[in-house]
Amino acid sequence: MPGTGYEIRPATPADLPVVLRHRRRMFEDMGFTDPPALDAMLASSTPLLAGGLRDGSYRGWLVEGAAGGVVAGGGIITLTFQAHPRDPRPERAWVVNMFTEPEHRRRGLARLLMETMLAYCREAGMRSLYLHASDAGRPLYRSLGFTPTN
């Protein structure tokens, strides 16, 4: 984002603590505030995300602010999944871990992350991208062409 003071970059295995922090904060923002449940979620998420950052089954992108430090992030996890008549690939991609620090919200960072992820999926030949939207995220996802499903 030239001229904005923000830069986007791919996440690396060294960014695992940031990705996990974003995952926790995302759920806290959605009202999940039980510390033991959040701790258990992170404990089981850690090996999956660490392995995914290493082998590419988790692709993350982080936005750094002008003063340094990560201020937003999100990623795509690709999972083995049964094929569908509309998509014969035996895998599905899901948007996960979308989070922007409160003081950096309403500046287009989530849109930048989503546009980056959509471009990645198009280049990879993926026909569908799935996500579970928070109430706050629904307008963004709708504006990008996502439709609710059951």
Structure description:
A hairpin with a 5-residue loop joins strand 2 and strand 3 (70-80). It is built from 4 helices and 4 strands. With 150 residues, it is α+β, with helices and mostly antiparallel strands. 37% of the residues lie in helices and 21% in strands. The longest helix has 21 residues, at 35-55. A 4-stranded antiparallel β-sheet has the order 1-2-3-4, with helices on both faces.
Distance between the termini: 35 Å
The outline comes out as globular
- Give, in spatial order, the strands making up the sheet with the most strands: 1-2-3-4
Helix content: 25-40%
Number of helices: 4
Low-confidence stretches: none
User: Which sequence of SSEs, written as H and E, runs from N to C?
Assistant: EHHEEEHH
How many beta-strand segments?
4
Largest sheet: 4 strands, antiparallel
User: Hey, roughly how much beta strand do the residues contain?
Assistant: 15-25%
Average pLDDT figure: 90
* Helix-and-strand structural type: alpha+beta
Radius of gyration: 15 Å
Write the layout of secondary structure elements.
Blueprint: E1 7-10, H1 16-29, H2 35-55, E2 58-64, E3 70-80, E4 91-100, H3 109-123, H4 138-143
Antiparallel strand pairs: 1-2, 2-3, 3-4
Helix pairs in contact: 1-2
